[in-house]
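Progress note, sequence design subtask.
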């Protein structure tokens, strides 16, 4: 039996007061719609269809949905109309269709699995996922008969006083069999709103004798729909707490959960300690027994085990090997790789640079577009001059090299293995292996210069004019 997911994402979200499509606003670093797509993927559907509207190009560019198909809803005519627009894109994958909303970023795959299991077990044509709401508000009410059988979903505006007291409400998640899906085209227009509501599919199915049911599972927070900035903030906070609680439960030490931000795709090894005000973003991976000190931001990077990332360090799109020390106040820019047991110290910047095992750049250096071998010492104030105003050039430093402080390596240049570069050098030519490179101006000492200068200044200061001191 085929399984498809349709994600409704065509709403403009005017209450967000933004030029950005509502579903592209982010929770914990990822667009809301991406969070829903990720949950849908875990069901392993044969097809995912995203129903989008006028801002479809923005959504296509922002969302990663390999194999996903886009369907256009040219006019905002309600959820029933949106599903109608999705039907051609489903192709032959219509045996079971799950309908999701693109603005419910907290919805979990496990809840969806439970829901689909109940749908299949009871051989329904229409299943609705419902939940108990503390404040039912604008949610559609789940109306049942005395035996608990689902009769209909009634929108708030259409509900009578008795129905308004119902606290079981519609989550907006549906499971539809092939026969139920065919009823979408016959959903009548709501004349008051000029829209077609997917909720009316329940009544239509019952009229034709198709089996329908509602399953009240999951927590209310999980089904939070985001329509305003306030709701976006609440959803972000809820997801952040959920993520942090997960890692604490897996053996990670989080010293101040209220100030730490961890994106959903981050992975952290056991016994790692996260200090306050740390941001772990994107697809970052951190190994076991590492220390991440305060004010650190790591994005899309791999951090090994036993690593120490010291205060106020930024690492982006890079790899850090086991037992490395980085920082404080270091910046590791994209494309960098630091080998195990290396040290990158305070106020050191790497860009597109490989640092070999046990090498160290302890302070105040810029190393860009460089390949640095093993057991290399980079002295304070070293700079690779990699940009000539037009192109970037590479610097190569072999194993066991010693670079003295305040050295400028003017790329393209190569320093051979075992070579020494004297402090204060400007290296413009290759240095052969095991050589000593010097490029200093010869030192000149003028003896007595200071005393002579003081006498000269004093005589000028006490010069008189017309017999009077100036």
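Output:
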């Amino acid at each position: 039996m085929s399984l498809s997911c349709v994600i409704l994402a065509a709403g403009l979200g005017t209450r967000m007061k933004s030029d950005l499509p509502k579903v592209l606003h982010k929770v914990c670093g990822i667009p809301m719609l991406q969070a829903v797509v990720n949950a849908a993927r875990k069901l392993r559907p044969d097809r995912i269809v995203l129903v989008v509207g006028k801002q479809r190009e923005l959504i296509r560019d922002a969302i990663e949905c390999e194999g996903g198909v886009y369907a256009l809803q040219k006019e905002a005519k309600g959820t029933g109309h949106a599903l109608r627009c999705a039907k051609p894109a489903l192709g032959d994958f219509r045996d079971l269709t799950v309908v999701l909303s693109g603005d419910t970023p907290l919805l979990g795959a496990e809840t969806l699995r439970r829901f689909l299991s109940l749908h299949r077990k009871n051989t329904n044509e229409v299943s609705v996922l419902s939940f108990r709401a503390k404040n039912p508000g604008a949610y559609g009410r789940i109306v049942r008969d005395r035996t608990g059988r689902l009769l209909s979903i009634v929108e708030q505006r259409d509900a009578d006083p008795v129905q308004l007291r119902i606290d079981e409400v519609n989550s907006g998640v549906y499971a539809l069999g092939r026969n139920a899906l065919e009823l979408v085209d016959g959903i009548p227009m709501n004349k008051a709103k000029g829209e077609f509501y997917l909720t009316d599919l329940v009544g239509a199915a019952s009229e034709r004798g198709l089996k329908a049911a509602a399953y009240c599972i999951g927590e209310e927070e999980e089904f939070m729909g985001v329509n305003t900035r306030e709701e976006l903030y609440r959803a972000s906070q809820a997801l952040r707490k959920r993520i942090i609680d997960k890692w604490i439960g897996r053996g990670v030490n989080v010293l101040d959960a209220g100030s730490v931000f961890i994106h959903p795709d981050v992975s952290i090894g056991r016994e790692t300690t996260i200090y306050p005000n740390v941001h772990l973003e994107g697809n970052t991976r951190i190994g076991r027994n590492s220390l991440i000190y305060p004010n650190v931001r790591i994005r899309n990077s791999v951090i090994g085990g036993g690593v120490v990332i010291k205060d106020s360090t930024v690492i982006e799109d890079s790899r850090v090997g086991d037992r490395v020390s980085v920082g404080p106040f270091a910046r590791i820019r994209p494309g960098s790789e630091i080998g195990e047991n290396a040290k990158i110290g305070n106020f050191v910047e790497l860009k597109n640079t490989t640092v070999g095992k046990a090498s160290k750049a302890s302070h105040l250096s810029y190393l860009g577009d460089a390949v640095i071998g093993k057991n290399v010492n980079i002295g304070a104030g070293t700079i690779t001059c990699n940009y000539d105003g037009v192109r970037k050039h590479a610097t190569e430093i072999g194993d066991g090299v010693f670079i003295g402080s305040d050295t400028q390596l003017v790329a393209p240049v190569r320093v051979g293995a075992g070579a020494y570069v004297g402090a204060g050098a400007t290296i413009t030519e290759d240095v052969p292996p095991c050589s000593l490179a010097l490029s200093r101006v010869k030192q000149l000492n003028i003896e007595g210069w200071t005393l002579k200068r003081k006498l000269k200044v004093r005589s000028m200061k006490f010069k008189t004019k017309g017999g009077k001191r100036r």
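The first strand starts at residue 3 and ends at 8. Work on this subtask will continue into the next period as scheduled.
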